[in-house]
Amino acid sequence: MGLFDFFKKKEAAPEAKVALDKGLEKTKEGFLSKITKAVAGKSTVDDDVLDNLEEVLVTSDVGVTTTLKIIERIEARVARDKYLSTAELHGLLRDEIQLLLAENNSNDFRNFEYGQHKPYVIMVVGVNGVGKTTTIGKLANKLKAENLKVVLGAADTFRAAAVEQIKLWGERVGVRVVAQAMGSDPASVAFDTLQSAVANQEDVVIIDTAGRLHNKVGLMNELGKIKNVMQKVVPNAPHEILLVLDGSTGQNAFEQCKQFTEATDVNALAITKLDGTAKGGVVIGISDQFKIPVKYIGVGEGVDDLQLFDKKAFVDSLFN
């Protein structure tokens, strides 16, 4: 079984759908109520409706660039069909958002398969406070539940509580943690973690990194050093660079994504804290703008509330 096959199987479960619906509740309520107001008193989709819809999408943190793309597509559809009722707008908007996510490979995980790499190395990046450590713990729990041997590397050695938090998650979910003293060289921690993973024939390595707001040059140098050191043990590591973003920060998440994608080769996104915000539209905008697949979403505080992102389930939940 591939590393992520079991995610696909489990995310289809009814309890996962319930968790997703509950997690997107605030976003959904705001989004749908705004759309209802946008079409109030109108029977057809005209310029006024499109202007109102544009405002709805922008204020839902979909982002200006992605909003304009969606509006242009709907305009083209209206021009082609000559008549489009406001009753059809929900379905059309749902289709266009789903198409955008499909174009951005939001469900294409063929490049992330475990089978070709042992250990499969994931380097997790992101600023402090976005839920990075929690995401690592929840991901480790999911992988361990499928009888995969997982080890965590506590390479965020600059924040006082970071190493202890990783250790606590390791104890909680029952996976091994490699750590050094606070202030140690992060690259040294990553090197030791990979060496021990190879020696112990472990399946997955998850490396935490410092969440400081570096300047781009400093960030690039530090992450580059960690990558270079890991490749001395496992060629082509890390196989995945997972950027964790806090969905509740809206447009701030766009700026963080910009900074990190310029600093390192991010190839997967995890968007957390969607259950506590009405800004879930950020998932659509970030996926579209950066062309990086959203791989995980956090829809609750429970250890099982990290879900593999399913674009169809996400859009269906948003419009239900």
UniProtKB/TrEMBL annotation:
GO terms for molecular function: GTP binding; GTPase activity; signal recognition particle binding. InterPro entries: AAA+_ATPase, P-loop_NTPase, Signal_recog_particl_SRP54_hlx, SR_rcpt_FtsY, SRP/SRP_N, SRP54_GTPase_dom, SRP54_N_sf. GO terms for cellular component: cytoplasm; plasma membrane. Keywords: Cell membrane, Cytoplasm, GTP-binding, Hydrolase, Membrane, Nucleotide-binding, Receptor. The keyword Hydrolase applies. Residues 293-306 form the SRP54-type proteins GTP-binding domain. Its EC number is 3.6.5.4. SUPFAM superfamilies: Domain of the SRP/SRP receptor G-proteins, P-loop containing nucleoside triphosphate hydrolases. Its main location: membrane. The keyword GTP-binding applies. Pfam families: SRP54 (PF00448), SRP54_N (PF02881). It is a peripheral membrane protein. GTP binds at residues 126-133, 208-212, 272-275. It catalyses: GTP + H2O = GDP + phosphate + H(+). It is an enzyme of class 3 (hydrolase). One of its GO terms (biological process) is SRP-dependent cotranslational protein targeting to membrane. It is found in: Cell membrane; Cytoplasm. Involved in targeting and insertion of nascent membrane proteins into the cytoplasmic membrane. Acts as a receptor for the complex formed by the signal recognition particle (SRP) and the ribosome-nascent chain (RNC). Belongs to the GTP-binding SRP family. FtsY subfamily. HAMAP family: FtsY. Part of the signal recognition particle protein translocation system, which is composed of SRP and FtsY. NCBIfam families: ftsY. This is Signal recognition particle receptor FtsY. It comes from Pedobacter quisquiliarum.
